[in-house]
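Researcher: Let's run the pair from yesterday's discussion. Sequence first, then tokens, for each.
Model: Starting with the first of the pair.
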Amino acid sequence: MKVYLAGYNVDTTVLEELQKSGGKRQDVTPEVLSAAYARISRDSRPINEIRESSRCEVERSRKSNSTIIFKMGHHSVAEHAVFNLDILGVSRYVMEELEKFRLCSYTEKSQRYITLDKDFVTPDEIKGTGFEKMFVDMIARQNQTYFELFEKLKNHIFKKHPELSANPKQHGLLEGWAKEDARYIIALATESQVGQTINARNAELLLRRFASHPLAEVKKLGHAIYEQISEIAPSIVIFHTENERDLKTYPELKKLAAEILNDVLPNKDSSVVRDVQLLEYTNCADETIAASLLHTSSGLSYEKCFSGVKSLSKEKQEEIFKTAWRHMQFYDSMPREFEYANLTFNIVLSSACFGQLKRHRMATITAQPYDPNLGVTIPESIKEINMQDKFQQIVEKTNQVYDAINKEIPLAAPYVLTNAHRKRVLIKVNARELYHISRLREDAHAQWDIQNISRAMTKEAKEVMPLTFALAGGKDCYNEIYQKIYGYLPKIIESALPGKRKIKAEN
């Protein structure tokens, strides 16, 4: 056996310095890896030799990429080329468009931990119109209120937690709590930044979507990304321009929805707004997952395993789950068999909360536009310092500005809405992913808004899948939940503790 490190992320500044000292090279491109790996299926040479050939013949490699990816249709080859992008000065509103692409990695500037400055994006659609001053003035009022709330919340939180405030090392934590609640009053226009890792195949998809997007800031972002990667990898980022599918599909669906729904539904939606509502779920999910676990562990067909599980007592069914969980720690993921059970939720949540929920990319998430009619989420701490009236006044003024802009420039109107404004989200998750959400977001260290949403999702799930979700809960409560099921605490694996580098075998 041989393993070669074929490549890894290198800062572009380092590459530039190396080229200055050693001369400019044509093979400083991820295209050579894509071309080399594309040849593996048809070239009998060792991979490392194929890579060497690709590096020596960059133009031939580019032609090979074009042929294999675009003529032969093997688009997965482009996934071997990966880009790291620093994206700065983008509005929080457009950041949601960027982070819709699931097969990428993102680390974004957190409004929970960083004190915000007054930087914001004025959309091109508004610049030079009669709404620009109204927009800018509203953002200024929101930002002023943010700083006012932050100072009041900071004093309140320090007094509320004297044991933490007595320790200077905990002051950053307490200030963070103040920031995360004060941010609910700032606009979606607020600037942010993100580090994105994306492969060439997904980059091309992103560029097509952005080129077809009606919003100017999205188009500009797509163009800026293309400028950065097109010279480095021209052979694997080709179909990047606007297209009929992305230009017309959803506008036509929106028009059709209005025609169809207006004929069969009342003009006003009088349904009660529930934050979390379970819409659909896999029937017999406990039995399905139990049968799947047995199917993996036996030579029997799934039908026989399912039939066998259905005939078992609840205690015997529970034994299957307990066996699957017995050796788990809080950081372990559920067995893959848990993906056979699905749940679909309708969730009404704040922008601040959506910013966290959308990070769970092993889910299907679609969302409606922000809707001021759904109200806003006001942090309890705002009420504790008697600032809810001031908060609501800013929200009402924001809604007035939104309504005025929305009548003339609906594309740009959402920029002025705040982190407290809400939208409807449809999310489908499998049981394995909901466990991940529960572990991470119900934890005591998670932000309260996403804690509430994830806790409500888990509660609904437990009612319809009691065995499947018996171990669900935040990671801070894992030992307690485990002990209730087994009567003892999980065994601590010494090698898994911080600082333990070597894997130790259990007796």
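Model: Moving on to the second of the pair.
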Amino acid sequence: MRESVGYNRDFLDSYHPNKTFYLSLEERNQLRDIGEFKLTGEFAGTHAKKVLERLLIDLSWNSSRLEGNTYSLLETRRLIKIGKKAKGKQWLEAQMILNHKDAITLLIDFKDEIGWDRRTILNLHAMLAASLLGNRDAEGRLRYIGVGISGSVYEPLDVPQLVEECFEQILTKASAISDPFEQAFFILAQLPYLQPFEDVNKRVSRLAVNIPLIKSGLAPLSFDHVARKTYTEALLGVYELNRVEMLRDLFMWAYERSASSYGAVRQLLGEPDPFRMKHRTALHEVVAAVARSCMNQKQAIDFIDEWITKNILPEEAALFREHAERELLEMHEGNYFRFRLRASEFDKWQKIWNA
């Protein structure tokens, strides 16, 4: 019943870098407080390396998940680390994740060379779109055809010259923004709204968000725990109404959790996770069973799926799987006892788990 709307050029034209702000000064300061690593010297470099290594897995999985990819976190890790495709999954899903790996590696390895320039964004798209588009010539090139948005009455620009002009204008304005968080959010809203590529636009924006964060030495944004439905609705607010409030709230919420998980300055996150509290005993049972049985990662994936089918409600299955897999991936010599594991059990399992 919603009326069709086209691209509103004024939404971009009316934004003036360092004068117009999607994020208030208070919000930008809050994000900086929770995103800065209070580390110095050699330890800072070591920690930064570990953060970026983890980002490779987290962002590849979460960004793919937001596109409907069905790989679990553990399956994603196995695919990225040892190239093992998950049994029963489509090859396109594996390709999507491996494309994310390549693109994120570009951001990390060339962080001093990339920026808000045409070549960076085009190459980012080419890597994310590799072998996923029907038209190979569209990889790393701005579109020359009209596109539609599924589930929306928004109709993006269909004049190639205007797409090109607005794309350059977005990059010019992003380059001029001095605050890294405002830069990140500007791209998160404006790039998908323009839809400069035939496809893979949202994926480009989610990775591009991390360019100013990585370059500024801030905690990255991995979109952990962001629900696909919520993210879609937040973008619809931008597409159809040019309203950024919901996307802004989602950005703030997601960044706070990312910064916390990567060991930046921790903020009080309010109430403990109710899902984790509800399933605390079950999570401990599953994780301990994997360790005591000395399962490798493939065996753990199969065991968790089978256990969930028998014990967890279907609507809670995906979130339970994520929690269980994170517990396994984050277990180390300093926290295994909370699962009532003996040192000998943990050591024996780790040799197989990390093989």
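Researcher: Give me one sentence on the second I can quote.
Model: The beta strands are 5-6, 154-155.
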